[in-house]
Amino acid sequence: MIIQKFGGVAMRDSSSRKACIRHIRRAISEHGKVVIVVSAMGRAGDPYSTDSLLSISDSLGISPHAQDVAAGCGELLASAIMSAELEMEGIENELIYGSRSGILTEGPFGSADLKMELEPFFRIWGDRNVAVVPGFQGTGRDGRIRTTGRGGSDLTAVVMGDMLGAEIVEFFKDVPGVMEADPSLKPDAKLFESLTYAELLPLLETERPVIQKKAALYAAMTSVPLHIRSFSEECPGTFVTG
């Protein structure tokens, strides 16, 4: 089994999602079972991005619970679209969300921690090879949706990788992998082909970390192997292990 996490830029439009589906086909042939975790589509300024949804809810001054409900809509929409487009490409899948997913949240709205109960997830997934899951959110014991902080879909992917015993968690980004610096600021920035968790963590102390630091810390604590790579290029990316 493999977990594949597709970020907002990878989910942005139909052309980008076709590239994602090519990666999913490859994963099915190589690993059999695939769990796909998606972020909201696009970046700040795009209508369904998390930043745009948070901007709307901030302007209304709504409660933290209502803000989490609004913020989580982007991933729900993205997961529904990915599921539908996979079906159109002949790839049967199960869209698993909310309390059906077994993904539980604990802690405050906007920065909750994640846990996972396996029985409801496997019961819904059944015998299909592919599951599609919205990242960034889960359901509390009180039945309320909570989100997991900026970049929280990365945490969803790593927690699922740990709990489901995945061989590896793949992150598909708009960069070739983990770089020594932001390539938009330093075009000749070096790509790291492999890193330890300890080597990765300092590289996440930037405004735009390649993956969420909370997710990387969880991976380090649970020894979940990571592969951070480009969704649009066939390049080796960066492997992160102990």
- Return the domain count: 1
In N-to-C order, the SSE pattern is EHEHHHEEEHEEEHEEHHEE
Please state the oligomeric state of the protein chains shown: single chain
The CATH architecture name reads 3-Layer(aba) Sandwich
Structural class: alpha/beta
Mean pLDDT: 91
Q: Helical percent range?
A: 25-40%
> Can you tell me the overall shape?
globular
Q: Can you give a write-up of this model?
A:
The chain has 242 residues and is α/β, with parallel strands linked by helices. The chain has one domain (2-172): Carbamate kinase (3-Layer(aba) Sandwich), CATH 3.40.1160.10. It has eight helices and twelve strands. The protein has helices spanning 14-31, 50-60, 64-71, 73-88, 118-125, 152-163, 197-200, 213-222; strands at residues 2-6, 34-38, 94-95, 103-106, 113-116, 130-134, 137-139, 145-147, 168-173, 194-196, 226-230, 238-241. Strands 3-6-2-1-9-11-12-10 form an eight-stranded mixed sheet, sandwiched between helices. Helix 2 packs antiparallel against helix 3 (64-71) and helix 6 packs parallel to helix 8 (213-222). The relative contact order is 0.15. The model has no long low-confidence stretch (mean pLDDT 91). Residues 2-229 form the Aspartate/glutamate/uridylate kinase domain. Pfam families: AA_kinase. Keywords: ATP-binding, Kinase, Nucleotide-binding, Transferase.
